[in-house]
Amino acid sequence: MDLRKDFIDPSSSYRPVPWWCWNGDMHEEKMEWQMREFLDKGISEVFIQPLFGLGVEYLSDEWWDKFNFPLRKPKS
Predict the structure, then answer these.
(1) Which of 7, 6, 10, 35 has its CA nearest to residue 20?
(2) Cα 54 from Cα 28, distance rounded (Å)
(3) Contact 31, 38 (CB under 8 A)
(4) 45: nearest Cα among 5, 11, 3
(5) Helix (H, G, I), strand (E, B) or coil at 20
(6) How far is CA 57 from the centre of its chain?
(7) Residue 76's CB: how many other CB atoms inside 10 A?
(8) Residue 24: what are its φ and ψ, rounded to 5°?
(9) pTM for the full predicted model
C-alpha cells in the first residue's frame, strides 16, 4: 500500500459519489456535457436525483429513456 500515491490518485472506492440533480427538460446535449465534466473531475459514479421542475413525468417511458442515456454513452 502506497499511501502517498493513494492520496494523490485515489481508487474509485475512495472517490466521492455526488448527487446528479435532474430538473428541467434534461436535454441529451446538456447531459453529455455534464457527464464529461464529471469524468474530467475524476467522478465516475453518481446518484441520479429527480427534482421539482423535472420536464418529464417521473418513471414514464421518457424518464427511462433519459435515465438510460448515460448508460448508453461510452466513457471517454
Answers:
(1) 35
(2) 14
(3) no
(4) 11
(5) strand
(6) 20
(7) 6
(8) 75, -155
(9) 0.73
So where are the chain's domains? 27-76
Please, are residues 44 and 25 in contact by the beta-carbon 8 Å criterion?
no
Grid coordinates representing 10 are: 485515489
* pLDDT by residue, tens only, the chain of 76 residues: 678 888 887 777 777 889 999 998 889 999 999 999 998 988 888 999 999 898 899 999 999 999 999 888 766 5
Q: Is 64 exposed, middle or buried (0-12, 13-18, 19+ CB in 10 A)?
A: exposed
* Of the candidates 36, 6, 2, the residue with the CA atom closest to the CA atom of residue 20: 36
